Amino acid sequence: LFNLLQLNMEKKLHKRINEVRAKVRSELSVSEWQSLRLAERFCLDGFLCVDNIERIDGLQCSVEEFVLPYESKSCPVLITNLQCGWAAHEKWTVEKLYRNIAINFSNVEKMMTVIS
Asked: Residues near 70 by Cβ (< 8 Å), separated by ≥ 6?
């Protein structure tokens, strides 16, 4: 199911990139657009970034162990496992989240159409 959702999002991303290409540089063919790597400039950072941020287990790390190396130095870190036991684990399904994302994505597209 996750692969289907990911595939659907990739299709939407490619469609959006083609829409941007047509608006921004309509004189370029798709191959010219790709050779100049312009698609990467218009993609969301989340699709292209390399994840190299440190992670710590929130259930195993005390406040003191967090403050000195991370908070006091303003060092970014992902704290994992703090969501364990949340009701959201039972209430939020992939299908439900995807429906909400699809609705919100559609609303943003409508707003962008009105703005432009």
From this structure: 56, 76, 77
- What's CA 57's distance to the chain center, in Å? 22
Region of 37 on the Ramachandran plot (φ > 0 left; ψ -120 to 50 alpha; else beta): left
Whether 2 and 24 map to the same domain: the answer is yes
Q: CA 56 to CA 77: how far, in whole Å?
A: 7
The label of the residue with tokens 């191959």 reads: 31
Supply the range of the domain harboring residue 70.
Answer: 49-84
**Are 79 and 89 members of one domain?**
no
pTM value is 0.38
Structurally, the chain folds into a number of domains equal to 3
Kindly state whether residues 4 and 38 are assigned to the same domain: yes
pLDDT in tens, 30-61: 777 777 777 666 554 445 456 788 999 999 99
Nearest Cα neighbor of 49 from 80, 28, 21, 76 is 76
Calpha distance 3→5 (Å, rounded): 5
